[in-house]
Amino acid sequence: MKGCLLLPLLLLGTVSALYLEKDAPHLGDPETQADLSQDLEGSGGQEGELALSGEVPELEGEEAEDTHDDEGADPDDLDEDVQCPREEETVQLPGSPECKSCRYRIVRTPKRFKKAQRVCRRCYRGTLASIHSLSVNCLIHRLSVTTNQAQVWIGGQLRCGRFIWTDGSCWNFTYWAAGQPTCGRGCCVALCTRGGRWRRAPCKRRLPFICSY
């Protein structure tokens, strides 16, 4: 009698195991790996500590050249050739709750990082935007999609192995995409219009940009 009962139970267990294996996602699948990376993005491990402190491993090759290319003369000495964008090329944003007097302006015309900074300085008496909270990041991200571009410049830049804001404010908030900034390339920081996360990008890349003033 016991043998008759065990056989159906064993068959049921085998079928259940095969069913679970079929429906369960495999860790080797690319989509599953991507989901895991996103889940680990805010885990606060060594990469998170490096991101918040602004420190990254020593640069080599193209990245070192990218940093060197963007350093040099004082931007104020180079303003003579800057042409201010037409009004229709920009979108003005209101200030954030944390800084009601702050103003942001998206310039849709793509520029290299250094040229974008010069436009912000000369045309709006400001700098590329620094971001110090999630609410400000969300505000800028929400309206950055009007550029119809994948990324926009913000004011983060890698100098001497550390990230800084071009306006000199404290590097006290980050919103990096998975794998960033450690595995990123380039020494300037761009905000992704899809998701609002940050990525390193070569400073010579031409992107729309956001000024704060």
From TrEMBL:
Signal peptide region: 1-17
Gene3D superfamilies listed in its UniProt record: Mannose-Binding Protein A, subunit A (3.10.100.10)
Biased composition regions of type Acidic residues, renumbered to the chain: 57-81
Phosphoprotein found in the keyword field: no
Keywords associated with the record: Disulfide bond, Lectin, Signal
InterPro entries named in the record: C-type_lectin-like, C-type_lectin-like/link_sf, C-type_lectin/snaclec_domain, C-type_lectin_CS, CTDL_fold, EMBP_CTLD, Eosinophil_major_basic
Disulfide bond found in the keyword field: yes
Alphabetized GO MF terms: carbohydrate binding
Transmembrane residue ranges: none
Every C-type lectin domain range: 104-212
Chain residue ranges for the region called Disordered: 25-81
Gene Ontology BP annotations: immune response
PANTHER family named among the record's database cross-references: MANNOSE, PHOSPHOLIPASE, LECTIN RECEPTOR RELATED
The name this protein goes by in its record: C-type lectin domain-containing protein
Gene field: LOC102180520
